[in-house]
Design goal:
single chain, 479 residues, alpha+beta, 3 domains, seven-stranded mixed β-sheet, two-stranded antiparallel sheet, elongated, disordered C terminus, ATP-binding, tRNA processing, transferase, EC 2.7.7.19
């Protein structure tokens, strides 16, 4: 294990530990990720003694630029050294109250500290003490579980999950990120203890969901959340997507399975977390808009608009950001049907202009979502849609180059209209601005100031408005 601790910081930590006469170990995620050949910049140092004292000593000995933060209440310290973040904590033993996942903490031994950890793959420790430097301590056979790609608790899973139910979500998150299997007894315990998740804060749940969403195949996590019973507790709107109704021999697709397929397809093309959230929520209103029509079969009319309205409630409950990120998700959900309709019905310049106007700089994200939304088992239909999407994409490029409609600003604004006609803010000003916008979107006039101005002056005649400059000139001639 010497190869894992070649960075100069480990030499400094080892020397500092010898000087204050304590044993210390690099433990947990850093060791796990190194064994899996994954990059890791977060290093946990477990100290049999004072983590703060060792951190302070290391900070003095580390001659390069670093920042030390001490958290006396928790007995921890964090050293930021270049791109590394190193957490120092004393070995501890934990006990729990049934109604809280916050542990009662006492000083402990190396053995105590390894026992309190969530999964065997996170109990692995490498000694940094000079006499045993590089030695791997693996009391729970974490190496075997890494090799077999298994998530397992070091102790009785019922105790592990009942004590801290967040670990149930972490098990599923690790299984998703690493594409491991959750050991059968461990998963059975998650199912048994799933109701305990109710004592976990929404912020912690959202953090784990975001990490699942960021994985290469987030569908793995959502299927495990569903199978474990956790999803029905933390995200009932997704559960409502499950199932297929059949009437008169006609069924609809299972929208839960479809949604996860779309989520994975979006994930192949982008790391944008909020576009992935849009993929997860794009059909969220289908259960509440599902209707049977004797002519059309199953319909989900306006599910995009209803879904847009549902998102703030979901984000608020999950403590997700109620800001531009949420608005982006709403925008994607609201617009996600538009390119699909264009690909089915043919592409007009007017429709493309309106799509560009409404999507703005998010048009590429919208197209990524919409292409992922084609999940039909009919491969000929999928091929036809994707080919039509290429036509839509080219039209978007051509019309944007000509009409510049992304984040559109009116070529004649309200201030100029009011000044030209001697108006204050009123309904007529809004009417004229909208008339200019519609004329540009319909291709009646180009997106240019002079053409828009002449069009607007002519349009104003319908409101019996004349420019005050022209009126003044006419009055002068009469005199």
């Amino acid at each position: 294990m010497q190869d894992f601790i070649q960075h100069p910081i480990f030499k400094i930590i080892s020397e500092a530990a010898d000087e204050i006469q304590c044993d210390c170990y690099v433990i947990g995620g850093y060791v796990r990720d190194k064994l899996l050949h994954r990059s890791s910049k977060d290093i946990d140092i477990m100290v049999v003694g004072s983590g703060i004292a060792l951190a302070q000593k290391v900070a003095l000995k580390w001659k390069r630029h670093s920042t030390l933060s001490v958290f006396k209440t928790f007995g921890t310290a964090q050293l930021k050294a270049g791109s590394l973040e190193i957490e120092f904590v004393g070995a501890r033993r934990e006990s729990y109250n049934k109604n809280s996942r916050k542990p009662i903490v006492e000083d402990g031994t190396l053995d105590d500290d390894q026992k309190r950890r969530d999964f065997t793959i996170n109990t692995l420790a490498i000694s940094l003490s000079s006499k045993t430097k590089g030695e791997l301590l693996d009391p729970f056979h974490g190496i075997d579980d890494l090799n077999q790609k298994i998530i397992r608790t070091p102790l009785d899973p019922d105790i592990t999950f009942s004590d801290d139910p967040l670990r149930m979500l972490r098990a599923i998150r690790f299984a998703t990120q690493l594409e491991f299997q959750i050991e059968s007894n461990t998963f059975a315990s998650i199912k048994k203890n799933c109701e305990r998740v109710n004592i976990v804060s929404a912020e912690r749940i959202a953090d784990e969901l975001n990490k699942i969403m960021a994985a290469n195949h987030p569908s793995i996590g959502f299927k495990l959340l569903d199978d474990s019973g956790l999803l029905s507790i933390i995200f009932p709107e997704l559960i409502a997507l499950k199932g297929v109704d059949t009437k008169e021999g006609k069924g609809h697709k299972d929208n839960f399975i479809h949604t996860l397929a779309v989520l994975d397809k979006v994930g192949k093309h982008t790391d944008n977390l909020w576009l992935r959230w849009a993929a997860l929520l794009h059909d969220i209103a289908k259960p509440v808009t599902k209707r049977w029509d004797d002519h059309s079969g199953w319909t989900f009319h306006n599910h995009n608009f209803i879904g847009e309205k549902m998102i703030p409630t979901i984000f608020k409950r999950l403590k997700l950001p109620m800001n531009d990120k949420m608005k982006f998700v709403q925008k994607m959900v609201s617009l996600h049907m538009r390119p699909i309709v264009l690909s089915e019905e043919g592409v007009t310049d007017s429709a493309i202009r309106r799509l560009l106007f409404d999507a703005g700089d998010d048009i590429e994200s919208l197209m990524t979502l919409c292409e992922a939304d084609i999940t039909s088992k009919n491969q000929a239909r999928v091929k036809r849609h994707l080919e039509n999407f290429q036509i839509v994409r080219q039209k978007l490029i051509d019309i944007e180059a000509k009409d510049r409609l992304r984040n559109w600003q009116p070529p004649v604004d309200g201030t100029e209209i009011m000044k030209l006609f001697g108006l204050r803010e009123c309904r007529e000003v809004g009417w004229l601005k909208n008339a200019i916008k519609e004329a540009i979107l319909e291709g009646i006039i180009p997106n240019e100031h002079e053409e828009a101005l002449h069009f607007m002056i002519e349009k104003a005649k319908e409101l019996n408005l004349e420019p005050i400059a022209a009126a003044g000139k006419q009055n002068g001639n009469n005199e």
